[in-house]
Amino acid sequence: MSDAPARAPLSLAAERVGALGRRAGRWLAASRPRQAAALILLCLALYLPGIAALPVTDRDEARFAQATKQMLTSGDLIDIRFQDEPRWKKPVGIYWMQAATVTAVGGPEDTGIWAWRIPSLIGATLAALATLWALSPLIGGPAAFLAAGLTATAMALAGEANIAKTDAMLLGLTTLAMGAWIRLLSGAGFGLRRDAWFAEIPAEHFPARGDPTPDAAPLRAVLWGALGLAVLVKGPIAPVVLALTLIWTAIATGSRRGLVCMGWRGFGPVLFLALVLPWLAAIHIASDGGFWAEAVGRDLVGKLASGQEKHGAPPGTYLGVVWGVLWPWAPLLLLAAPAAWAARRRPWAALLLGWSIPFWIVLEATPTKLAHYLLPVIPPLAGLVAAWLAGGGAPRLGWSRAAAVIFGAVGVALAGACIALPVAVGNVSWPAAALALPALGLVVLGGVSLWRGLPRDAVPAMFAATLFLYPAILQFALPALAWGFPSQAMARASAPYAACVGRPAASQSFREPSLVFLQGTDTAFLSEDEAARTLREAPGALVWIEDRRRERLDAAFGETPPDLNELARIEAFNPNRGKPTVLRLMSRSGDPMLAGCETASTRP
Question: Could you say which residues form the signal peptide (predicted)?
């Protein structure tokens, strides 16, 4: 029996979604204020839902947030520390930004992790807006608007926007710098004019030959200022991206204008040095040179030489993970890549390929690999996809069906996980399911369009799916997995006892930074001998003991262990170890400091 009648309603629905989306896109793209407003609203809809609901994550986010908290409480804005340990792997920029937002909302005490995440939200939104600004001279306003939307919806960026780290802000500043450089190139006569490739886009969306040359001074200030701020956020990544693009573009086009237009003898380099050098000098003095040994010698060189912190992977890894990292539109790269390479000598394509391919090669050659390292190539890859769609977007049917399978497989897995994982841990999230189901339907419609070789019809379904799916994940599904956030349950269970004794509970073997952020800076991480001595001798001793290390604690007690009282018990999953764990809050029986505290037993 033919299944054509069963497919017809889906095909019709996919066509209608595609047509509606294209009409809305044309209306929004016709006005620059509408473009900017639409991008801001899109970013807020994608990123805001999880910013307060998602518990603090381990380990990087908790370390950044705790170091910023200590910066605020100590008043030392130069030396970065996590408890008593120096935190010199990254420069100070993101800590200052977090400190500013936390102070603006009332200070570090009793303020949720959401306040530390505001710079990441701002950085991710800046990345989308800067993509529009950067790519308009290359591929025209409407295609640049589409590329900016694709950048905003990339799953990796949505995740980073909800985590108090460096990477979302780094992407925003890097894209801003690249946009200023591209516009300087446009003013230098690099040939960034309307291309026959974009025949369907009206000429007014491109620079005309009679247009006035943009004033170079403000653009150079933006370029060098954004590079300086990016260096303060995460070291040399943004200058490396720009340098690699310069080299590729010069080779591909035979032009040195990209280097000359930067204004090396002007105010820009002075601005860059004024932003970067004062803190570098101050931390050099404060650390007695230790910052360079840690940030450059151990962190940067260590990542280039070997896989750090169990994150080593072979070359080619990113080709395997990009389909999830840049979902929902990563499968379109399969379709756009041949056309982009065929156009590699055209100025717009040379720039976008130079922005993405060399840095990707560097990432593949570096032993340490993490998914978020791909963030700097999101805007140019989105630009290549948008340019291909603007140029007609007619794929071979076989490749389009392969893209449909990849898009559908990842989308179905994400929607299914939103429903199944909370159920698996006994904490059903009905809001997550309610959002995941329409997202699943939109994934099916987008997949149908791709299967039929109609990628333009698939794009609106992709956008709509993320508007349902990302809030389902970030606001409801992940927070419902309380089992996977042990520190949150531990801090809640120990709070009444810590209030009695005037200090946070210590921990014998569970050493996640989130516990310090949630319980307090004075949270102590103890060895077995230290835990045994504390429980035997210290007044008001509170110690978290992990079952997997209980035998070592008993051995440290020796032949005369003290009588212990179990105040709370947490059954949880440690994501960084990848295994379940049981933690017990223990005190010494009969301790007078705890006599007035109410006992409790807690399960997440």
Answer: none
